[in-house]
Design goal:
The chain is an alpha+beta fold. It has a single domain, classed as 4-Layer Sandwich (Glutamine Phosphoribosylpyrophosphate, subunit 1, domain 1), CATH 3.60.20.30. It has 8 helices and 12 strands. The strands form 2 sheets. It has an 8-stranded mixed β-sheet. A 4-stranded antiparallel β-sheet has the order 7-8-9-10. A hairpin with a 4-residue loop joins strand 2 and strand 3. Helix 1 runs antiparallel to helix 2 and helix 7 crosses helix 8. The two termini are 33 Å apart. The model has no long low-confidence stretch (mean pLDDT 94). The structure holds aspartic acid. Aspartic acid (ASP) binds next to strand 8.
Protein backbone atom coordinates (compact mmCIF):
# COMPACT_ATOMS: atom_id res chain seq x y z
CA UNK A 1 0.00 0.00 0.00
CA UNK A 2 1.30 3.52 -0.71
CA UNK A 3 2.52 5.13 2.48
CA UNK A 4 2.87 8.52 3.95
CA UNK A 5 1.55 7.50 7.32
CA UNK A 6 4.11 6.73 10.04
CA UNK A 7 3.80 5.03 13.43
CA UNK A 8 6.13 4.63 16.40
CA UNK A 9 5.55 2.46 19.49
CA UNK A 10 7.93 1.95 22.37
CA UNK A 11 8.14 0.09 25.66
CA UNK A 12 10.17 0.63 28.79
CA UNK A 13 9.63 -2.81 30.28
CA UNK A 14 6.80 -4.96 31.59
CA UNK A 15 6.19 -6.30 35.08
CA UNK A 16 4.72 -5.59 38.48
CA UNK A 17 4.69 -1.83 38.58
CA UNK A 18 3.39 -0.58 41.94
CA UNK A 19 0.68 2.04 41.76
CA UNK A 20 1.74 3.16 45.21
CA UNK A 21 5.00 4.71 44.03
CA UNK A 22 5.58 8.39 44.64
CA UNK A 23 3.77 10.52 42.08
CA UNK A 24 7.05 12.22 41.18
CA UNK A 25 8.61 8.89 40.24
CA UNK A 26 5.67 7.91 38.06
CA UNK A 27 5.82 11.33 36.43
CA UNK A 28 9.53 10.84 35.75
CA UNK A 29 8.85 7.54 34.01
CA UNK A 30 6.13 9.11 31.93
CA UNK A 31 8.44 11.96 30.99
CA UNK A 32 11.17 9.45 30.07
CA UNK A 33 8.75 7.63 27.79
CA UNK A 34 7.51 10.89 26.25
CA UNK A 35 11.07 12.12 25.63
CA UNK A 36 11.93 8.86 23.85
CA UNK A 37 8.72 9.06 21.84
CA UNK A 38 9.52 12.62 20.77
CA UNK A 39 13.06 11.60 19.76
CA UNK A 40 11.73 8.85 17.48
CA UNK A 41 8.71 10.79 16.21
CA UNK A 42 10.92 13.71 15.18
CA UNK A 43 12.85 11.37 12.90
CA UNK A 44 9.69 9.98 11.31
CA UNK A 45 7.90 13.30 10.89
CA UNK A 46 10.96 14.61 9.04
CA UNK A 47 10.65 11.70 6.60
CA UNK A 48 13.39 9.66 8.29
CA UNK A 49 13.84 5.89 8.28
CA UNK A 50 12.06 3.48 10.62
CA UNK A 51 15.35 2.10 11.92
CA UNK A 52 16.73 5.57 12.69
CA UNK A 53 13.52 6.40 14.57
CA UNK A 54 13.48 3.18 16.58
CA UNK A 55 17.15 3.72 17.43
CA UNK A 56 16.57 7.32 18.51
CA UNK A 57 13.81 6.21 20.89
CA UNK A 58 15.94 3.40 22.33
CA UNK A 59 19.02 5.64 22.64
CA UNK A 60 17.01 8.09 24.68
CA UNK A 61 15.93 5.37 27.14
CA UNK A 62 19.41 3.78 27.27
CA UNK A 63 20.76 7.07 28.60
CA UNK A 64 17.93 7.40 31.14
CA UNK A 65 18.86 5.55 34.39
CA UNK A 66 15.17 4.89 35.12
CA UNK A 67 15.20 2.19 32.45
CA UNK A 68 17.04 -1.13 32.51
CA UNK A 69 19.19 -0.53 29.44
CA UNK A 70 22.50 1.29 29.12
CA UNK A 71 22.94 3.58 32.16
CA UNK A 72 20.88 2.08 35.00
CA UNK A 73 21.15 -1.52 33.72
CA UNK A 74 20.45 -4.17 36.37
CA UNK A 75 23.24 -5.97 38.24
CA UNK A 76 24.07 -9.58 37.45
CA UNK A 77 25.05 -12.20 40.08
CA UNK A 78 28.68 -11.07 40.06
CA UNK A 79 27.74 -7.46 40.81
CA UNK A 80 28.49 -6.25 37.28
CA UNK A 81 26.47 -5.53 34.16
CA UNK A 82 26.15 -7.48 30.91
CA UNK A 83 24.04 -5.86 28.24
CA UNK A 84 22.16 -7.19 25.22
CA UNK A 85 20.69 -5.38 22.20
CA UNK A 86 19.39 -6.01 18.68
CA UNK A 87 18.09 -4.15 15.64
CA UNK A 88 16.30 -5.35 12.52
CA UNK A 89 15.27 -3.67 9.28
CA UNK A 90 12.10 -5.21 7.86
CA UNK A 91 12.78 -4.12 4.28
CA UNK A 92 15.94 -6.23 3.90
CA UNK A 93 15.85 -8.54 6.93
CA UNK A 94 19.23 -7.04 7.79
CA UNK A 95 19.85 -7.39 11.49
CA UNK A 96 22.56 -7.04 14.10
CA UNK A 97 22.97 -7.74 17.78
CA UNK A 98 25.36 -7.79 20.72
CA UNK A 99 25.11 -10.01 23.79
CA UNK A 100 26.79 -9.90 27.18
CA UNK A 101 28.73 -6.73 26.46
CA UNK A 102 30.26 -4.91 29.41
CA UNK A 103 31.91 -1.72 28.21
CA UNK A 104 29.94 -0.39 25.23
CA UNK A 105 28.07 2.75 26.26
CA UNK A 106 25.30 2.21 23.72
CA UNK A 107 24.56 -1.46 23.02
CA UNK A 108 21.94 -0.47 20.41
CA UNK A 109 24.51 1.52 18.43
CA UNK A 110 26.84 -1.49 18.61
CA UNK A 111 24.04 -3.79 17.40
CA UNK A 112 23.52 -1.59 14.37
CA UNK A 113 27.26 -1.49 13.73
CA UNK A 114 27.33 -5.30 13.72
CA UNK A 115 24.56 -5.20 11.13
CA UNK A 116 26.26 -2.63 8.92
CA UNK A 117 29.96 -3.39 9.30
CA UNK A 118 30.27 -7.17 9.68
CA UNK A 119 29.05 -10.23 7.76
CA UNK A 120 27.58 -11.51 11.05
CA UNK A 121 24.37 -11.00 13.00
CA UNK A 122 25.42 -11.46 16.64
CA UNK A 123 28.67 -10.68 18.44
CA UNK A 124 29.01 -11.67 22.10
CA UNK A 125 31.20 -11.06 25.14
CA UNK A 126 34.72 -9.69 25.08
CA UNK A 127 35.00 -10.18 21.32
CA UNK A 128 32.10 -7.78 20.87
CA UNK A 129 33.47 -5.30 23.42
CA UNK A 130 36.93 -5.33 21.79
CA UNK A 131 35.50 -5.02 18.29
CA UNK A 132 33.29 -2.08 19.24
CA UNK A 133 36.25 -0.27 20.81
CA UNK A 134 38.35 -0.88 17.69
CA UNK A 135 35.49 0.52 15.61
CA UNK A 136 35.63 3.73 17.59
CA UNK A 137 32.35 3.23 19.45
CA UNK A 138 32.22 4.89 22.84
CA UNK A 139 33.29 2.66 25.72
CA UNK A 140 32.92 3.14 29.48
CA UNK A 141 34.10 1.23 32.55
CA UNK A 142 31.53 -1.40 33.57
CA UNK A 143 30.67 0.49 36.77
CA UNK A 144 29.57 3.50 34.68
CA UNK A 145 26.27 1.60 34.30
CA UNK A 146 25.81 1.49 38.10
CA UNK A 147 22.79 3.06 39.67
CA UNK A 148 22.25 2.93 43.43
CA UNK A 149 18.58 2.03 43.08
CA UNK A 150 19.55 -0.96 40.94
CA UNK A 151 22.26 -1.97 43.42
CA UNK A 152 19.73 -2.05 46.28
CA UNK A 153 17.39 -4.07 44.08
CA UNK A 154 20.16 -6.52 43.29
CA UNK A 155 21.23 -6.94 46.92
CA UNK A 156 17.62 -7.74 47.81
CA UNK A 157 17.30 -10.29 45.01
CA UNK A 158 20.69 -11.78 45.88
CA UNK A 159 19.72 -12.21 49.50
CA UNK A 160 16.55 -14.01 48.47
CA UNK A 161 18.58 -16.01 45.87
CA UNK A 162 16.19 -14.85 43.14
CA UNK A 163 16.62 -14.01 39.48
CA UNK A 164 14.02 -11.44 38.63
CA UNK A 165 12.70 -8.99 36.12
CA UNK A 166 14.10 -5.59 36.95
CA UNK A 167 10.55 -4.49 37.67
CA UNK A 168 9.53 -7.56 39.62
CA UNK A 169 8.48 -6.19 42.95
CA UNK A 170 9.51 -2.66 43.53
CA UNK A 171 8.46 -0.58 40.61
CA UNK A 172 11.85 -0.39 38.97
CA UNK A 173 11.83 -1.08 35.26
CA UNK A 174 12.51 -1.91 32.26
CA UNK A 175 14.09 -3.27 29.15
CA UNK A 176 13.49 -0.81 26.34
CA UNK A 177 12.34 -1.28 22.77
CA UNK A 178 10.82 0.53 19.84
CA UNK A 179 9.09 -0.47 16.61
CA UNK A 180 8.40 1.87 13.71
CA UNK A 181 6.68 2.13 10.35
CA UNK A 182 8.12 4.99 8.31
CA UNK A 183 6.48 7.05 5.61
CA UNK A 184 8.05 4.86 2.90
CA UNK A 185 6.36 1.76 4.36
CA UNK A 186 9.50 0.30 5.95
CA UNK A 187 9.25 -1.46 9.32
CA UNK A 188 12.04 -1.73 11.92
CA UNK A 189 12.55 -2.95 15.48
CA UNK A 190 15.16 -2.17 18.15
CA UNK A 191 15.50 -3.58 21.70
CA UNK A 192 18.11 -2.99 24.43
CA UNK A 193 18.44 -4.37 27.98
CA UNK A 194 20.54 -5.06 31.03
CA UNK A 195 18.69 -8.39 31.30
CA UNK A 196 17.34 -9.75 34.57
CA UNK A 197 18.44 -8.78 38.07
CA UNK A 198 20.90 -11.27 39.63
CA UNK A 199 21.11 -13.31 36.39
CA UNK A 200 24.05 -15.68 36.07
CA UNK A 201 27.12 -14.17 34.49
CA UNK A 202 26.99 -15.24 30.83
CA UNK A 203 23.22 -15.53 30.71
CA UNK A 204 21.76 -14.14 27.48
CA UNK A 205 18.08 -13.23 27.22
CA UNK A 206 15.65 -12.89 24.34
CA UNK A 207 16.51 -9.29 23.47
CA UNK A 208 19.54 -9.92 21.19
CA UNK A 209 18.13 -13.11 19.68
CA UNK A 210 16.51 -12.31 16.36
CA UNK A 211 13.07 -13.90 16.31
CA UNK A 212 12.82 -14.15 20.11
CA UNK A 213 12.84 -10.59 21.49
CA UNK A 214 13.22 -8.62 18.28
CA UNK A 215 11.93 -9.09 14.72
CA UNK A 216 10.86 -7.08 11.67
CA UNK A 217 9.63 -8.11 8.22
CA UNK A 218 7.96 -5.67 5.85
CA UNK A 219 5.49 -8.33 4.77
CA UNK A 220 3.92 -8.37 8.23
CA UNK A 221 5.13 -6.44 11.28
CA UNK A 222 7.93 -5.26 13.57
CA UNK A 223 8.02 -6.59 17.14
CA UNK A 224 9.96 -5.83 20.34
CA UNK A 225 9.41 -7.90 23.50
CA UNK A 226 9.97 -7.46 27.22
CA UNK A 227 9.65 -9.91 30.08
CA UNK A 228 11.13 -13.19 31.23
CA UNK A 229 13.53 -13.76 28.36
CA UNK A 230 13.67 -17.54 28.62
CA UNK A 231 9.95 -17.72 27.83
CA UNK A 232 10.27 -15.47 24.79
CA UNK A 233 13.21 -17.54 23.52
CA UNK A 234 11.44 -20.86 24.03
CA UNK A 235 8.41 -19.70 22.06
CA UNK A 236 10.29 -17.69 19.41
CA UNK A 237 7.88 -14.95 20.41
CA UNK A 238 8.67 -12.07 18.04
CA UNK A 239 8.92 -14.32 15.01
CA UNK A 240 5.80 -16.08 16.26
CA UNK A 241 3.76 -12.93 15.73
CA UNK A 242 5.15 -12.58 12.20
CA UNK A 243 4.52 -16.27 11.40
CA UNK A 244 0.93 -16.15 12.63
CA UNK A 245 0.28 -13.26 10.28
CA UNK A 246 2.19 -14.54 7.26
CA UNK A 247 1.18 -18.17 7.28
CA UNK A 248 -1.78 -18.19 9.63
CA UNK A 249 -3.55 -15.24 8.06
CA UNK A 250 -4.09 -13.62 11.45
CA UNK A 251 -4.40 -9.89 11.98
CA UNK A 252 -1.66 -8.19 14.01
CA UNK A 253 -4.02 -7.96 16.96
CA UNK A 254 -5.06 -11.61 16.84
CA UNK A 255 -1.44 -12.75 16.46
CA UNK A 256 -0.25 -10.69 19.44
CA UNK A 257 -3.18 -11.75 21.61
CA UNK A 258 -2.58 -15.40 20.82
CA UNK A 259 1.10 -15.13 21.66
CA UNK A 260 0.76 -13.06 24.83
CA UNK A 261 -2.35 -14.64 26.33
CA UNK A 262 -2.33 -18.21 25.06
CA UNK A 263 1.30 -19.15 24.50
CA UNK A 264 3.07 -17.15 27.23
CA UNK A 265 2.18 -17.54 30.90
CA UNK A 266 0.54 -14.81 32.97
CA UNK A 267 3.27 -12.57 34.35
CA UNK A 268 5.79 -13.34 31.59
CA UNK A 269 5.65 -9.82 30.11
CA UNK A 270 4.53 -8.28 26.87
CA UNK A 271 5.38 -6.88 23.46
CA UNK A 272 4.83 -3.96 21.15
CA UNK A 273 4.21 -4.45 17.44
CA UNK A 274 3.39 -2.33 14.43
CA UNK A 275 1.93 -3.76 11.24
CA UNK A 276 2.57 -2.96 7.60
CA UNK A 277 -0.96 -1.46 7.47
CA UNK A 278 -0.15 1.02 10.26
CA UNK A 279 -2.07 -0.86 12.95
CA UNK A 280 -0.27 -1.30 16.24
CA UNK A 281 -0.59 -3.38 19.40
CA UNK A 282 0.92 -3.05 22.89
CA UNK A 283 -0.12 -6.20 24.74
CA UNK A 284 1.07 -7.66 28.05
CA UNK A 285 0.10 -10.25 30.64
CA UNK A 286 1.89 -8.63 33.59
CA UNK A 287 0.23 -6.05 35.84
CA UNK A 288 1.73 -3.23 33.78
CA UNK A 289 4.00 -2.29 30.90
CA UNK A 290 5.64 1.07 30.32
CA UNK A 291 4.69 2.04 26.80
CA UNK A 292 3.91 4.81 24.37
CA UNK A 293 2.76 5.40 20.82
CA UNK A 294 2.75 8.26 18.33
CA UNK A 295 1.71 8.56 14.69
CA UNK A 296 1.51 10.99 11.80
CA UNK A 297 -2.16 11.69 12.53
CA UNK A 298 -1.29 13.37 15.80
CA UNK A 299 -1.62 10.48 18.27
CA UNK A 300 0.81 10.78 21.18
CA UNK A 301 0.23 8.70 24.31
CA UNK A 302 2.11 7.09 27.17
CA UNK A 303 0.69 4.51 29.60
CA UNK A 304 1.75 2.18 32.40
CA UNK A 305 -1.29 0.20 33.49
CA UNK A 306 -4.57 -0.80 31.89
CA UNK A 307 -6.28 2.50 32.51
N1 LIG B 1 13.58 -9.70 28.30
C1 LIG B 1 14.67 -9.25 29.11
C2 LIG B 1 15.59 -10.41 29.39
O1 LIG B 1 15.11 -11.49 29.70
C3 LIG B 1 14.26 -8.66 30.42
C4 LIG B 1 13.17 -7.62 30.39
O2 LIG B 1 12.45 -7.50 29.41
O3 LIG B 1 13.02 -6.87 31.38
O4 LIG B 1 16.77 -10.22 29.35
Amino acid sequence: MPHSHWVLCLHGGAGVIGRDQPAARIAAYREGLAAALRAGANVLSAGGAALDAAMAAVRSMEENPLFNAGKGAVFDASGGHELDAAVMDGSTLSCGAVAGVRTIRSPIVAARAVMERTPHVLLAGTGADDWARDQGLETVPNNWFDDEFRRAQWLKAKEAARVQLDHADDGAKGTVGAVALDSSGVLAAATSTGGMTNKMSGRVGDTPLIGAGTYADNRTCAVSCTGTGEQFIRHAAAHGVHARMLWGGMSLKAACNDLVHRVLKPGDGGLIAVGQDGSYVMEYNSPGMFRGAADSRGAFMTAIWDD
